[in-house]
User: Fold this.
Amino acid sequence: MNLSEGRVGNTYKVTGIDLPEKITRRLQMLGMTNGTDILILNRKYSGAIIIKIRGTRFALGKAFSEGIMVKEDRAK
Amino acid sequence: MDDKILNVAFAGNPNCGKTTLFNAFTGAKLKVANWPGVTVEKKEGTAHYHDYTYKMVDLPGIYSMTSYTMEEKLSREYILEDEVDVIVDVADASSLERNLYLTIQLIELGKPVVMALNMMDIVAERGMEIDMHRLPEMLGIPIVPVSARKRTGLSVLLHAIAHHKDKPMDRVEHHHSKGMHIHSHHDEYAMVYSDEIEDIIDLISARLMEKFPDMKNYRWHSIKFLENDKDIIEKYSIDTSDIIKKNYESDIINQRYDFIHEIVKEVLVNKEEKSVLTDTIDSVLTHRIWAIPSFLFIMAVVFFLTFTVGDFLKGYFELGLDFVSNAVRTGLDYMHIGNVMTSLIVDGIISGVGGILTFLPNIFILFLALAFLEDSGYMSRVAYVMDGIMRKIGLSGRAFIPMLLGFGCSVPAVMASRALEDKEDRIKTILVTPYMSCSARLPIYVLMSQLFFGNKAMIAAYSMYVIGAVIAVLTEFIISKIYKTDPKENNLLIELPEYKTPNARTIAIYVWDKVKDYLSKAGTTIFVASIILWFLLNFGMDGMTGDMSTSFAAAIGKKAEILLRPAGLGHWQIVVALISGIAAKEVVVSSMSVLFGVGNIASAEGMSLLSQQLTALGFGAINAYSMMLFCLLYIPCAATIAVIKRETGSWKYTLISIIMQVGTAWVVSTLFYQIARLFV
Assistant:
């Protein structure tokens, strides 16, 4: 699944990023490496979301969140 | 007093409190300039401690040291090539994990690094603790806890900088040896990569050493080769194709974060992430329904403060200006100074430059409000809240702010485009902001619609606001269609920092800096522009003239009237009035009264007299509406042109903006006039 399909309040683990190289690198440098936990804090009707990753909140547009592959974190 | 000089560069993530810390050292005496060739701000200042003078440079806020953005490139080139003695890495202790990523890269640059660990108070509030013994041991650099807001730890930091200036690294106490085969020199480095990568680093370093014996930091350059960094590879051409078989950038990022994770696990005690306040505020301000009403309410307050309160103060400024110009005129008369000189000083310089001063209350209040929103952390949320709507016309969510402020006055609105982080977005926004109908255009609408539209006057005047906004949106829409951007390339990605109480000192310095900037930079342009306009309106072939109809402006008007004939504005008086409107839009009204010889244009008799004269020229209701459209869209006033030049930093965009606006004005009013003529 990708991050845009996630539910608000749930935590997911990053499994991969399928976006242009430059964007992928930027996201990785911000800490979105494989296995990192992402908590979805909020979502708008337009599909933009607010996430928390490594203690920092980010707002992400729909096109980006659709390119972030995640799996459900069963530990939570 | 022959102090030893230390060059210190401040580096850190955006929102880590770096600027607040920098300001705490330098006070308002900082010097703001641009980095050579780009419109990224460079802040410089000095501090003294014991027998050292610290020359400090505040680098732009960055997340990493790659060459993807202008800010990152500037920062690393400055650190590598300039005389930087010590790097101060400002890190936000409350999001240590992400901040350490830059720290690791700064350490790799090979210059002495001192970490200023900011926001320790927030960490304490959350019941967390950071092991201040273990953290410096793992990174190999001294770490000084500071609070930029409470101004604590400042001298300790200066002391640490002085002590550390000649020592790139302390000994690193590694937790365990990383690789299978130990590389002899790894004790010197905090960040040790996998065997595969370390082996390649050694191979490339050897090759670089051979070809570039003077290079400063082989390890860092080798890592850049592994990261496939275009700038470095171009600059130092060596063949690495036999060593580097793939792009290691992703592996390198992952390994750095693995190391960071290891650090955080060890040094962060009571890792608890409660940030109740931010979550509570965000539950309203970014709520899927309440977010937009809350934003509009906040903007309404900003608008009210800037324009209602600002204009109230502006009134007093204008009274003061009248007083000064009258006094000067009397004084000059008394001294028997010639008419030309008196007119130049009073009508040209004082009214032109004074016009700039009257904008001061608006600009001051606007920047106070914007600084408050920025420093509190709300500004980033605006990007999220307005993203969906603005993205449709190819702009980032924050572009809404300058466009809305444009309804008040184009000058502060254009300046507010600084809230946009992307340069392209900034220029696109600046280009259309003047289409939003500013308050100075209202007197023109009022006069024209009262003359020709009777009881529909209100509707005619209001329609201008709607048309201006529609044209701004349409223009952006067209631009976004021409310069298509892939949503997978260009999409919302922004950090939302924790909310905090804005810092008075940071705000004061920010506002003072903007006001100073406006006065000096915009002021000089307006000064020149007002002298040119004064000359055109007051001089003719026979020298100075009291009669505007014999001035150069009138001569231009008579030549140019043919150009405006298709728009129904082909009368030289109208053309001259429009030219004079470049000084300030409201001047169109007073010029009309002078040109048509009408004494009090606002009175009933004045209006009927003007109406008679215009009718005699064949100037009717559709001409009037065409003129309103033209005034709405054509060149913004001289002050706006000056700030457009200032903000874009380019004559090219300033010219494009002027041509585009005059063009739009001509096309729209001509279209309207020609179509309307068919029906009337």
Summary: The domain at 3-72 of chain A is CATH 2.30.30.90 (SH3 type barrels.).
